[in-house]
Design a protein that fits this description.
N5-glutamine_MTase, transferase, 7-stranded mixed beta sheet, Class I SAM-dependent methyltransferase, about 35% helix, 2 domains, single chain, Small_mtfrase_dom, methyltransferase, Rossmann fold
C-alpha cells in the first residue's frame, strides 16, 4: 500500500499512486455530489477494518484492489463501526431529528470512502466481481472511460437494477411499478390506498404533479380517468414514468410531460404528493424526501386554483410527520390552504404500516408511531 498525500481534486478527476503502475487518474463519479477525497490509499484483502475505519473517518479515500466479496465484507465492518455511535437524543424531537440527520451525513461520508475503479465499458476488474455493465449503463450511460466510484454507490446501482428487474407489486394498482435509480420507490402503500379509494370528482381528465415513477397517474388511469397529464422535471423520473406507462399499457391515457409543477390548462382533478419534510436536501438524491422551505407544497397549494376547473378538486397527499417533528407549525398547512382561497372538502386519513413506525429503538419512534398520512380534498371557496 502507498500513500498519495498530494492527491487533489482536479475538476472531476481523482489522482493517486500505487505500485506497480505509478500514477493513476480516473474520472470521479458520485450521484450524491460527494467531494473527491483529498488523500488516497490503496487497500486490499490484507487491510484491517480498524485501519480502514480510521482512514475513512479522516476523509481518506481507499481504492480497493482485492477480492470483490472481501470488499463487501470490509464495507459491512465499517458499517458496524460507524453505527456503534448512535445519534444523541436531543431535548426535543426537532433537535433529535437534526442530530439524526447529522449522524446520517457522517455515516454516508465515512462509508463512501471505500472506492472501486471501473474501467471503460463499465468493467470491474476485481476477483469474483459481478458483471456490472448493464446496471451501470442504465444509471450512468455509456461507459466511455475509466472512473472511480464508492462501493456503497455501486451496490445501490446493482440493487436498483434488481428492483428494476423485479418491480414493486402494489395492491392499490393491482399491478407492478418498476422504479429507476434515483427515483423514489412507492414502497409506502398507505398513501396509494388513499388515492385508490377517494371519490373522483370527474373522469374526464386529471393532472399528476411531480409524478416520479408515475404510480399515481397509473392508479388514476386504472380507476377510469380518460386522460392524465403527469409532470416532472427530473429526467430519470420522466424516463421511469414513461417506461411504466408503456409496460402497463396506459400510454394512450397518460401523457408524461417535463415541466416544473403544473402543465398548461385546467383539469377537474389535480393530484400532488410532495416530499413530506421541509428540510434542505444535502444531496441530489434527497430531493425525493425533502422539500426545502416547503417549496413544492407551497407552489401546489398557492397555484392550485389557477389550474382547477369549476367544481374541480385538488388532492394533496401528505404526512403530518413534519408537524410532529416540529419542522412545520400545527396550523401552517391549514393557514396556507385558507390564504390560497381554498376550502377542505374532506380529509382521508390513514396510519403508516412500515416497520420503522414500530421500531422502539428508533430515536424518532414517538413521531413515527403517531404519524398520520392524509389525502386533503381541496376546492375553491
Amino acid at each position: 500500500m502507498s500513500w498519495d498525500d498530494g492527491a487533489m481534486m482536479t475538476g472531476q478527476l481523482m489522482r493517486w499512486q500505487e505500485d506497480p503502475g505509478g500514477d493513476h487518474v480516473a474520472a470521479w463519479r458520485s450521484e450524491n455530489d460527494a467531494r473527491v477525497p483529498g488523500r488516497v490509499v490503496v487497500v486490499d484483502d490484507r487491510t484491517k477494518a480498524d485501519d480502514a475505519f480510521r482512514w475513512a473517518c479522516e476523509g481518506t479515500g481507499m481504492v480497493w484492489r482485492g477480492d470483490f466479496h472481501h470488499a463487501r465484507q470490509l464495507l459491512k465492518a465499517l458499517t458496524k463501526r460507524v453505527d456503534r455511535k448512535d445519534p444523541k437524543v436531543g431535548d426535543s424531537l426537532t433537535e433529535t431529528f437534526h442530530r439524526y440527520r447529522q449522524a446520517q451525513g457522517r455515516r454516508a461520508r465515512i462509508l463512501g470512502m471505500l472506492l472501486v475503479c471501473v474501467d471503460a465499458g463499465h468493467v470491474l476488474r476485481l476477483r469474483r466481481a459481478p458483471d456490472v455493465q448493464a446496471a451501470c449503463e442504465a444509471v450512468y450511460g455509456p461507459g466511455e472511460g475509466r472512473y472511480v466510484v464508492s462501493l456503497r454507490e455501486l451496490q445501490g446501482v446493482l440493487s436498483a437494477a434488481e428492483w428494476r428487474r423485479r418491480g414493486v407489486r402494489l395492491p392499490a394498482l393491482g399491478d407492478t411499478i418498476v422504479p429507476h435509480y434515483g427515483v423514489f420507490s412507492p414502497v409506502r402503500g398507505e398513501y396509494l390506498d388513499l388515492v385508490a379509494r377517494a371519490p373522483i370528482p370527474s373522469y374526464g381528465s386529471a393532472f399528476d404533479v411531480g409524478t416520479g415513477t408515475g404510480v399515481l397517474a397509473a392508479i388514476l388511469a386504472r380507476r377510469g380517468i380518460e386522460k392524465v397529464i403527469a409532470t416532472d422535471q427530473d429526467e430519470r423520473a420522466l424516463a421511469c414514468a414513461r417506461e411504466n406507462m408503456d409496460r402497463l399499457g396506459l400510454s394512450d391515457r397518460v401523457v408524461v410531460e417535463r415541466t416544473d409543477m403544473f402543465p398548461a390548462g385546467r383539469a377537474p382533478l389535480v393530484v400532488c404528493n410532495p416530499p413530506w419534510l421541509p428540510v434542505k436536501p444535502r444531496t441530489p438524491l434527497e430531493y425525493a424526501v425533502y422539500d426545502p422551505g416547503s417549496r413544492m407544497l407551497r407552489s401546489f397549494v398557492g397555484s392550485l386554483n389557477e389550474h382547477l376547473d369549476q367544481n374541480g378538486e385538488g388532492w394533496l397527499i401528505i404526512s403530518d410527520l413534519a408537524e410532529r417533528l416540529g419542522l412545520r407549525g400545527p396550523t401552517e398547512l391549514p393557514d396556507l390552504i385558507e390564504r390560497a382561497g381554498l376550502r377542505v372538502v374532506d380529509r382521508l386519513d390513514t396510519r403508516p404500516v412500515h416497520s420503522r413506525a414500530r421500531d422502539r429503538l428508533d430515536a424518532l419512534h414517538a413521531a413515527r408511531a403517531a404519524e398520520v398520512v392524509s389525502l386533503w380534498r381541496l376546492a375553491g371557496v
